[in-house]
Amino acid sequence: MNLIDIYIQEVTRRLPKKSRDDIALELRSTIEDMLPENYAEKEVKEVLKNLGNPASLASEYSDRPMYLIGPRYFDTYMTLLKIVLPIVAILAFFVIIMENINTYSGEEDIVNGIINVIILILGHVIWGMISAAMETFFWITLVFAILERKDSSRSKSPLTPSWTEWTPDDLKSIPLITKEKKISTGDIFGSLLWIAIFISVYFNAGHLLGVYEKVQGKIELITPTFNQEVLHSYWLIVIVALIIEIAFVFYKLILRQWTSKLAIMNTVRNIVSTLVFIIVISNDQLINENIISI
Amino acid sequence: MQLQFELKYSFIIILIVLWLLLSIIDIVQGFRKANMK
Prior knowledge:
The complex is a heterodimer.
Chain A: H1 2-12, H2 17-34, H3 41-51, H4 54-62, H5 71-103, H6 110-150, H7 185-202, E1 210-215, E2 218-224, H8 228-233, H9 235-255, H10 260-281, H11 289-293
Antiparallel strand pairs in A: 1-2
Helix pairs in contact in A: 1-2, 1-4, 5-6, 5-7, 7-9, 9-10
Chain B: H1 2-34
């Protein structure tokens, strides 16, 4: 008897308060129906074993899933995470680099400079990327967990990315990507890395690029190649070109294959960056006069 | 002074030519990949 009471308690404590008494009664009568007239503990155990884990039974009674995200939403959830998380991490990477460029004092001593850059990357960038990704992960998971619980349809078949039931017509909207046309993830991340290196070097060229000499045992930048004020004066067009570059990379990330439209955009991107490059480099004051006389 | 002037401009011209060359290669590659069957 005691085992039955405990079993009923274990089931009902997982249910909403208002339905506990009714379900307790129903469950008790079910158990009693399953038992012979003069039953022993062995028979009770047998019946309870057949009814299964109280948590599973409670889940059946309350019609609530025993998982955070079920088969219906899991594929959409994973697809969204795979698209959004890298974007968020990359955006965080750029935002933190941009924020730190202004605060980076620019050590004249190259060794200290490199150590500072490593600390900057480890301390700010990696942590910033992880925390941005974690936050996004949390909110996406929360939204899907709510969706899972609010979905009134009984269907367990996975949703398509367009949030409807799958039909063979869905295949018509998916392009067949050939190996030659495919844009690899390495290509996308390579482009983003190159943009990040360019931003770091462009806005720090005054204390990174130039002639280094050993002064009292320390390697120091004696003559910078470029005039940092001139580089900074073109910040607006450089930022515009960089935004176009970043937008192009994200467009590649979405398309995942080379198309005529992408090739035209690539041409525009190249023309813009070439024009900006020519405008910046043709400035008379850009290259430090002292570097030529060395 | 004249030598410095020439050095500076030849350096700039080399950089521009290199940049142009890389851009053209990139544009051509883009169209080549887009038109592949």
